[in-house]
């Protein structure tokens, strides 16, 4: 089996260059490049060091490649460096693979089919109508949306939470041409997370013709999806000469939408004019609320993958050790039930996890191993 693509993916996810990984593993950069291109295979000892350097289990390298293509719904001009962008995309690929691995455990037809609609638009204003139509199709009414992540996941969207630095808001893509994916930054405030998720949903469902500004259309879609016009008119009225920041703070807490987003909605729907819009943002700046608003909105948390893993464990489709692998150790306290688990078939990953001869040395201190080889006068690099 060619594990080169898996090594390259893990390296990208870790944000390491070929040379940096080589230094951590104790081999040459040329050796790492050959491993990734499939021109050479690492020895068992080198494979152990690769796994430790990349913070993955050895089984990771033997997983079946399930993500063939990753097509961004919209490629933003990100301020993030190339390596960080690659790390984020590699993280998304790895997370989607875990979703697919778990879903394959269940019988065909276990999950309801769900297909995202596509809304052609020729102007930014039409994004508002698209959001209203999607709410109608999903039977959301005009009420605040609780658990936005859950709503998206129930519609077949893979939602990936990423621990990313400031500058990354969200990313949406299609995996293998048909699986919708949204990734978002867990370090953003709850209201920002919700807006970013809705914004990326807009990129997935809007089909904008030039010269429509795609980002502005997704922005308008997000505001309308989170707070439809009907709700805005109920809360603010149809025409206002001014808005109170304190009333908007109350609405923020109720709808999970920022004060700034409420001002945008009021302006988009012509409830306030341009002068009032500018005045409100000056007030925000005077209070220091442009960078950090008051009020707390609950963080969004994907739960579908964890739920499916627990279900698979309850149905004895997987072992506790394999469940822990899929959750990156999240089920360390799960105890095996007094029932013999069926032997997995045709799955190298699960075979690895159950084979103690293969996993016995996975957590060894490799520094001791280096010292032993040095005493034997053997070069790890030359063995690779």
UniProtKB/TrEMBL annotation:
GO MF annotations in UniProt: DNA binding
Coiled coil region boundaries: none
Highest taxon of source:
Bacteria
Under the heading CDD domains, the entry gives: HTH_XRE
According to the entry, every stretch annotated as the HTH cro/C1-type domain falls at 7-61
Q: Name one Pfam family in it.
A: HTH_3
Q: Which family does it belong to?
A: Belongs to the short-chain fatty acyl-CoA assimilation regulator (ScfR) family.
Protein name listed in UniProt: Zn-dependent peptidase ImmA (M78 family)
Species of origin: Planifilum fimeticola
